[in-house]
Predict the 3D structure of the following.
Amino acid sequence: MSPHEIEAAPRPATEDVSSRQAPRFPGRWLAFLRITVGLWFLKGIVTKMTWFAFAGFIPLPRASDRWVNFLPRRLTEYASANPIEAYREFLLNVAIPNAEVFAYLTAFGETAVGIGLTLGLFTGYASIIGFFLMANYFAASYWTGMCQQGFHVLLLACMLAFLGSRAGRVWGIDGWLARRYPRIPLI
């Protein structure tokens, strides 16, 4: 039988009913989720970023003073009751003494994830960065309870789904990049 004859063949009476009720265009629904999560990450542009004029007229982004000043207090709070000994030590001995560096890393990291997911641009890389950020946020806030843990676990799962499904290929720039440059990994 040719492929056309197989498609035209009558379906058996025992056809799985759930296949007829399956959602149409699952890639679009995943793209919708990707864009929504990306927009959530883009809030970092407003809450953690600011602009300064380099050479008096070239606008460049940087972590906001508010975020740089707030982060050491937040990290100290997270370290105060964190039951994960190794992570508490990391917060106390690495992150808090270098809070300004971590403020820049988180501000730029969240912005990169937000741009990547929203535009579907290098979505695999954005998902890896997002996974790393969420894993650290999860470990830092582990002791705060299920509200924080559940949110971070949900975002961790989303990042894995976006990475595994190449979610940027539908309604994203990655679709064009994958056709034009098929050897680029993770798009």
